[in-house]
Amino acid sequence: MRLSSETSQDSGAEYYARNGTITKLEELNVIKQSDDMHVQGKQSLRARYIYGFIFFATNLVAWFFRDYGAKFLHPLHNLRACKTDQDECFHAGGVLRVSLGCFIFFVIMFATTSGARKLHEFQNTWHSRWWILKLVLYFASLIVPFIIPKSFVLLYGDVARIGAGIFLLLQLISMLEFIAWCNSNWMPHPQSKKCGFSGLILATISFIASYGGIIMMYASNSTCIFNIFTITWTAILVKVMMGVSLHSKVNEGLLSSGIMGSYIVFLCWSAIQSEPQTGKCQEHWRSNKDSDWSTIVGFLIAICSIVMATFSTGIDTRSFQFRKDQLQLEDDIPYNYGIFHFVFAMGSMYFAMLFISWDLNHPTREWSMDVGWASTWIKIINEWFAASIYLWKLLSPVMSKKVEDGEVSAQHIPPSV
């Protein structure tokens, strides 16, 4: 009996030793998997900047084809699609072909990564790694548009107008979500007794910038009736948005209306800058025609603005999701790859329209971008649309509440009445 008890004690010790070893191995595997997920998450976040750099380089390639491609890229004249006319592969045609190549690349990335959900899936590996293969795919996408007929390129140019409009809509949605985030994080709740000092400072700066910009635009456009009307209407919109946001039934505060006001003032200023240098409205710009450096710096700032607008809209994927209350798990992808690449595909159409000023046959000058009456009116309409959507977002909860109150009161009316 003593021997059997000692044997059972030994077997029990061995069992607990084995069980403890298994537990430690499981803990090590969990830690290793967690580290792998952390590394893959970092790779995914770094991949965004690589795609942003690819998009920036494509903008520079499109500008080079538009302004200097006909002078320096002589071998392209031997291509079948480029023999008849220089405009088919250079100038506006070159911009459309480069934009089409960029569009093809990001559409392929959208199609191959849109189903990604977890970091351990193949779509995440394809999105975050294999850069040599993706560079080959990118250059192949740029080559294909230069061997297709002109009719397909012109068709893409017509479709690009719609895609650029979709991009502006996505950018507006992202802007509204950013304003809501600022308002919820930097301004206190209406029933709270907190001051929200940082939010008030930012709101004050926004309104000073808005009205300061309006005054400066008045001073530099005092002889143009069209510009005076546009600036005056912008000032009215800023005032109306501030009044509605401060109304007791809305009670949204100053911060959101201040940021939105500065945004539409910027759109108004950008629309005035896009007016062609003909007529009375642009006499002050023609007087500064010798300032080449300011033109070049403004052009480079415009390209960086396109890239930053596309990049910031692309990474803000939660703004375009229907459900925003889902918990972020450790093995979930940090952002939606499909939405990210879709925004960049629409952004490729958008920069094409800016380079050719929304007109397929528009003769553009060197170091110029988004100049013409078509560009001016698109920015003005975008400004009015942004202000309308913002006001609707403020008033829709109040109106829906009134409808619900009316339905409740109607249910309490006696049938005899």
TrEMBL record:
It is a multi-pass membrane protein. InterPro entries: TDE1/TMS. Keywords: Membrane, Transmembrane, Transmembrane helix. The chain crosses the membrane at residues 47-65, 94-114, 135-156, 162-183, 195-219, 225-242, 254-273, 293-315, 335-356, 376-392. Pfam families: Serinc. The keyword Repressor does not apply. It is found in: Membrane. The keyword Aminoacyl-tRNA synthetase does not apply. One of its GO terms (cellular component) is membrane. This is Serine incorporator.
